[in-house]
Amino acid sequence: MRLDEPLDYFLTRRGVGTWASVRQLIQQQQVLVNGIICKHYHRRLLPTDVVNAAGVLIKDDIDTGTLICFKKVGYACSHERKDAPLLYDVIPRHYQHPNLQTVGRLDRDTTGLILLTIDGMWVQLVMAPEKRCWKRYRLAFSGILSADAQARVCSGMMMLDDPRPCLPARLELLGHAADGLGLATMHLCEGRHHQVKRMIAALGGRVERLHRDRIGGLELPTDLHPGEMRPLRGDERVRLFEMPENV
Ligand code: URA
């Protein structure tokens, strides 16, 4: 577990229950730290502490509180039933938790790397623009982008329907696919609604395919196939906050 992590926070993150039910468990003297009943929600943990809740050893080798997913086309990152089919519907039963939320969103027709977590504070670390956690999108587009497209992206461009300029980002043009579409990567450290599509539209193109393959230093793992998800490993959690050099 993380150094100095409060006991109730740790148990919630590990999927033992909701914040309230975890606290109830502690109140009912069902939680032991190093074999001794602990009645303090805020007890700060050391990485070497051994925690039992309701007779079960709560390990922290894998983090079922955070899932890594290869989103496939067709699923909405929404909790609204009217938007079904939902990404939340395809979470395997043993990973389901009432507090699971996606870390940012991908559009229904966007594929690739998305994280889900029960840890709201962690969402901020990955998504808040000031944290500079860069996301890489690979896209295929139709149309012809303006000649100064890369410079505009780089200097913080305007989108057609938004009064605020985007934060400086990076666009790489990669030639053309066999079907004639233009190929590019876009690196963003913010996540406005449909941002890549709106930026490309403002530059004169139209996104036809969009795929996210990296968040921070974490690439979409090759062991995940479209539609699959699994707990995020400790080394992957670390890599997420290691910024790649080529952003
Ligand atoms: N930008 C978009 O336009 N769509 C996504 O799904 C993600 C980023």
Structure description:
It is a single chain. This protein is of the alpha+beta class and 247 residues long. Helices cover 18% and strands 30% of the residues. It has helices spanning 7-13, 19-27, 120-127, 149-154, 195-202, 234-240; strands at residues 5-6, 31-33, 36-37, 44-45, 51-53, 56-57, 62-71, 101-102, 110-117, 135-143, 170-176, 182-188, 205-215, 218-219, 229-233. The strands form three sheets. Strands 7, 8, 9, 10, 11, 12, 13, 14 and 15 form a nine-stranded mixed beta sheet that branches. The protein is elongated and about 70 Å long. The model has no long low-confidence stretch (mean pLDDT 92). The chain binds uracil. Uracil is lined by residues 106-107, 110, 194-197, 210.
In short:
By secondary structure, the protein is an alpha+beta fold.
Helix content: 10-25%
Assign the structural class, choosing from mainly alpha, mainly beta, alpha/beta, alpha+beta, or little secondary structure. Answer: alpha+beta
Please state the average pLDDT score. 92
Number of domains: 3
Question: Low-confidence parts lasting 5 or more residues at pLDDT below 50?
Answer: none
CATH superfamily of the largest domain: Alpha-L RNA-binding motif
Bound molecules: uracil
Oligomer: single chain
State the total count of DSSP E strands: 15
Any idea what the radius of gyration is? 21 Å
CATH architecture field of the largest domain: 2-Layer Sandwich
Q: Termini distance?
A: 31 Å
H/E element string?
EHHEEEEEEEEHEHEEHEEEH
Total helices: the number is 6
Strand content: 25-35%
Described by the principal axes of the CA atoms, the overall outline is elongated
